[in-house]
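Problem 12. The chain below contains 426 residues. Write out its predicted structure in token notation.
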Amino acid sequence: MDGLRAQFAQMSPFSPTSTSTKKTTDLSDLRFLRSPHSQLLLIPPPFEHMDIVLQTRHLARGLERIQGAVDRKSSMPILSSVLLSTDGPHSVRVVATDLYMGAVSSVAAQVKQGGSVALPARTFQDIVRKLPEGEVHLAVDERRAAEIRAGRTRYRVPGASGDDFPPLPSPAGASFAEVDATTLLSLLSLTSYAMSSDDTRPHLAGALLKGDGKKLHVVATDGHRLSKAEARVSDAMLGFEMLVPRKAVHELERFAHHMRQERSGGGGAARIAVATAGPHAFFRSGDTMISVKLGDDKFPPYDRVIPKSQERVLIVGRQALCDALTRMSLVSSERGGAVRMTLSPGTLRVVGESPEAGEGSEELDVDYAGTPLTIGFNARYLLEAMGPLDSDRVRIELAGELDPAVVRPEPPGEIDFVGVIMPMRT
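Solution.
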């Protein structure tokens, strides 16, 4: 044994008597040393698979843009994570997906060493929101744990391999057409309330987006009401028809809102590029892109249910009618929320009643010269149709007590809107 020790001492570069010319003053480059008598002489320090430096506000903004695509209820843990992946020496891609919708945003960074890691979305975003302003340093070790340092604050967050993260679809070869972000936001806000919340009816649980080169149309219906909004566009390449699922519609609203806000300080109007490739649609603006798996179902022939003309026309102050409906809904049936509207020349009487809460009524002065009519509606349906409008007055077109009502802004605006609401028996 003593002989082996002596032989080992002679062979070791750390021995004072060693004749080796290898420099050993810096051990950071040595991973392991081998000898005939020992397989591993030096255990290396943890190897960092990714090492980046970012600005806190830039990382927080990137996470905010993609967080709507995170699947927080999935049984697959990787889908409740966000992927951080280096993209060259000066950029990091932040990615989220629920397998039906994906979002990716590029964040400026100083990349010391490339790599990728998947981190729990909620924990990571909460941490970044609370970090102090300035630089944040993120390093990933061989166990896929991310060390996050900002100032004197430090976290260590367990992660997963970026290779396990599902790939996002690519718009390679697709032709993009641009729309104004404010216009798209207005169209979605005017219609999204009418989407069905019943996922067993996928043809109704979303909105139809259609571009014909002259106009951009958005239509939604749940079978009890319908909303349609359209606006003129200048891009002749805007030719598509897609059924966008409900979650993606709300995410597009949020996306368009963020893009408009970022440009509100100057730099021109925000634009969103739209394209389709196979079963997916892509929406891109700046350094962020959203991909959406489109619905395969056929949207109903909506033009058939929009009345062409109505014999009774009522014009009333929008806010006054909204206030009256809100007050009368307090005593209407909780199950249906029905209110009764009685029209006579110059007057509209709104009544709410239920056996449990009692009854109430309110009269409004209106512009109406037709024959008397009593008709019932779900108060919430009327409120949601009128709420997004920016006109001071609304035009309500009626036929009979069992026929749908048509709601339009008065006077018409740049965006052509029509809401159709089926009546209720009261």
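Discussion. The two ends are 101 Å apart (CA to CA). Students who got a different answer should revisit the alignment rule from Section 12.3.
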